[in-house]
Amino acid sequence: MKFYGDGIPGINPEELTGRLIVMEGADGSGRSTQMDILRDSLENKGHATVNVGLRRSTLVSEELKEAKQGNVLGEITRSLFYATDFADQLENRIIPALKAGFIVLADRYIYTLMARDIVRGADRAWVRSLYGIALIPDLVVYVKVSPAQLVERNLGKNATLDYWESGMDLGLSRDSFDSFIRYQRLIQKEFASMQNDYGFKTVNGNLTARAVAREISNMVTDTLGL
């Protein structure tokens, strides 16, 4: 394995014998469902897995949750909060699991964090350097769903749209539905610009869960030989 940048001091990526698979996609894209399907499939074939995701660090996850609820985080503060959460999980969960030969399944990784920051005006070079500590995954699957479909799916689960996933802090629109559509289009545009640099495999998330799972399974087989 390799790091995107300088990595973490004292860690030799050649000692990491496991595999890292990343699933990206907006809330409502079916990303987490596909993660569960993939995990069950891999474990049924005898592969040991470990799940990680955003805001799961024992170091700052609760503090980050509380700060987000107050809608008072500054742009740089929020970026560094998420970067700290990621770095803690990388050092204490992802790397140890890869050393032990596990397949690490990441429910979102640095790409969502980078896209969010850049859409909010952060310097692209600064954001990329911030995540130079990240390991390069063996496979990145981006489950892309149309913004209109995302609205329907999110409202099917909750009575209101999430403040941050709607980009309400950006002042795109006073209407949460309109803001959600505009924000998700900006995020998807950023993912499209990152695709060549980071080698995403894009899946049409508008298809049925079974069809998406079959396509992801084929990607895993083709890319990792699992």
How would you portray this structure in words?
With 226 residues, the protein is an alpha/beta fold. The chain has helices at 31-44, 61-69, 75-99, 110-119, 124-130, 147-157, 176-198, 209-224, and strands at residues 19-24, 49-53, 103-107, 139-144, 201-204. It has a domain at 13-143: Rossmann fold (3-Layer(aba) Sandwich), CATH 3.40.50. The two termini are 17 Å apart. The mean pLDDT is 88.
Q: What sort of overall outline do the alpha carbons produce when their principal axes are compared?
A: globular
Assigned CATH architecture of the domain at 13-143: 3-Layer(aba) Sandwich
Low-confidence spans: pLDDT under 50, at least 5 residues? none
Count of individual beta strands: 5
In N-to-C order, the SSE pattern is EHEHHEHHEHHEH
Strand order of the largest sheet: 2-3-1-4-5
Which bin fits the share of residues in helices?
A: 40-55%
- Broad CATH class of the domain at 13-143: Alpha Beta
Going by helix content, strand content and strand pairing, the class is: alpha/beta
| CATH topology-level name of the domain at 13-143 | Rossmann fold
> How many DSSP helices?
8
By oligomeric state, this entry counts as single chain
Q: What is the first-to-last residue Cα distance? A: 17 Å
- Sheet with the most strands? 5 strands, parallel
Q: What's the pLDDT, averaged over the residues? A: 88
